[in-house]
Structure formats: structure tokens, C-alpha cells
Amino acid sequence: MLKSGHRSHRGACCLPLPEIMQAVTANAPATLCRVPSKPKSPNRVIRVDDDLWREYGAACEADGVKRSDDLRTYMLRKVKAWKRRQTAETEEYSGA
């Protein structure tokens, strides 16, 4: 634990600050974390009831998956089914 109750975060993404910078940033952790310049996908905001979110988190944890991975899997399945229906409707109307 650092001064002022700050915890040191030292993961694979963090680099130690040069000694000169540590003197200047006395109340900040002594590491800089790398932040990707361009994330793989943008964050989305959804509204979910607190109880549902908590229980969903417990269900995902029991299955060994992250909420975001589970949501993406569901969304991909939904989109694939929708595309199949769109293709079937297009073929039906075109007489194929």
C-alpha cells in the first residue's frame, strides 16, 4: 500500500515510472499503465435492474464466463438467426 491509502497496481500492463517522475507524483501510484490507443470495440451502455445484473453476474460466474462474453454470444446468435430469416424471405420473394 502506498501513502495516502493508494494501492500499487503492478500488472503486465504497467511500467515503473522513472525515478525523477516518482518525486513529482508523490500521491500517485509509482507505475503508468498502458492504455490501448484504439480499443478493440467500443463500450456500450445498457440499462439493467440491479437485482437482475447481480443475479446475471452470479449465473455467468457459475458458468465460467464473463457477462460481456455471454452477451456477445447471445447477440451473435440472434443476428445469425435474423440473417437466416432475411435470406429465406429474400429467396422466397425472388422465387429461388
The number of helical runs is 3
What is the succession of H and E elements? EHEHH
Instruction: Tell me the fraction of residues in β-strands, as a range.
Output: 5-15%
Mean pLDDT: 78
**What is the number of domains?**
2
Q: What can be said about the biggest beta sheet?
A: 2 strands, antiparallel
Distance between the termini: 69 Å
Task: Assign an overall shape.
Answer: flat
Q: How many strands?
A: 2
- Report Rg: 23 Å
Tell me the strand order in the biggest sheet. Answer: 1-2
Low-confidence stretches: none
Q: Which structural class fits the helix and strand makeup?
A: mainly alpha
Percent helix: 40-55%
Overall description:
The model has no long low-confidence stretch (mean pLDDT 78). A two-stranded antiparallel sheet has the order 1-2. The protein is built from 3 helices and 2 strands; from the N terminus they run E-H-E-H-H. By secondary structure, the protein is mainly α. It folds into 2 domains: 3-33, no CATH class; 50-94.
